[in-house]
Amino acid sequence: MGDNMQDYRIVRSSRKTVALELDPGGVLIVRAPYGCSDAQIRKIISENAEWIERAKVRQTERQSNKIELTEDDVARLKEMASDILPKLTERYAAVMGVHPAGVKITSAKTRFGSCSSKNSICFSYMLMLYPREAVEYVVVHELAHIRHHDHSAAFYEEVEAVLPDYRERSRLLRGKQKMP
Questions:
Q1: Other CB atoms within 10 A of residue 43 CB
Q2: Buried-most residue among 82, 99, 111, 129 (CB within 10 A)?
Q3: CATH code at 71-174
Q4: What is the pLDDT of residue 180?
């Protein structure tokens, strides 16, 4: 496990299970029920040492793929998103036979898109840093949530009916970002 596993923080609450996550600085956060002892927590950390190390590697890779954006870059990306994403949404909504309540561009950094329970769709301007195929995948993904507000098999069947190569497209979102 190594000495670096000493660096963790415990957050106790009325939850029923233990969850492990990394904060942005790479510190392990252990979310545990009130009744979970420190010894049980150390055992869980030890049993999950491989997962923790893989998660740290993935986090480091993601951070090295990030690019620094100037205010001008952000303004340009927002403008591009406002031009491109509503048009793509309209095009794919027609293909899929769905009707989003609206399309909004956000500054979200941790998610590319979302679909509310009222079928309003939001996209992050950060999507403009990815290839067109990946952007189209996010659009179709969010539109599929209008019919399926989950990630069930039926949801993915809906996505696949429009984009048979959606798996490859989704992998592009894990790649290196670059300014268009």
A1: 11
A2: 129
A3: 3.30.2010.10
A4: 67
Name residues whose C-beta falls within 8 Å of residue 22's C-beta, 6 or more positions apart in sequence.
28, 29, 52, 55, 56, 59
Q: Is the dihedral of CA 109, 83, 80, 148 positive or negative?
A: positive
Tell me phi and psi for residue 105, to 5 degrees: -100, 130
Between CA 60 and CA 58 the distance in angstroms is 5
The answer, as to whether pTM is greater than 0.85, is no
CA 59 to centroid of chain Cα atoms: 13
pLDDT category at 7 given cuts 50, 70, 90 is: confident
Q: How much is the average pLDDT of 144-166?
A: 96
Q: Residue 13 in contact with residue 30, Cβ under 8 Å?
A: no
Joined together, the tokens standing for residue 38 give 């420190």
